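User: I'm new to structure prediction. If I give you an amino acid sequence, what do you actually give back? Let's try with this one:
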Amino acid sequence: MYDAELMAVATGAAGTLVAAIAASGAEKMRLKVAYFFRRANLDQRRAAAQAVDDTAAQLTSPTPEAQALAATAWAQLIAQYLAEHREAMSEVDELAVHNMPASKVWNQHNTGTGTFIGGDVHGGMTFNYGGASDVGR
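Assistant: Good question. You get back a string of structure tokens that encode the predicted 3D arrangement of the chain. For your 137 residues, that looks like this:
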């Protein structure tokens, strides 16, 4: 039996991983899972890779029951791995998919002369002096 801290971490990681596989697909998550389980023996690495595919197949119709079943399987796999490789506990958050917020594109068209900047400028600015218009890109 695993201790409470290990099971809490494994259960949380399992739920996060199942959600990430559902949102991002097996291909994207396969590399993250392989990296996370890099300290495992060959059989554990194969089981983790197979679990990614199994989870993706289970989530083709993402019912709460399918998600719970997949999360339970992952929790056991992750708990076993963390019990053998305690140093990996600090890396569990790497299994999450970190989505960058969508950037906003603002177009400003000025007429006349002089300098005009309306509002706050965040990020880079591109000036197309005499260049081709970027309308429709």
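You can read the tokens as a compact description of the fold. Here is one thing that stands out. Helices lie at 4-24, 26-36, 42-58, 64-84.
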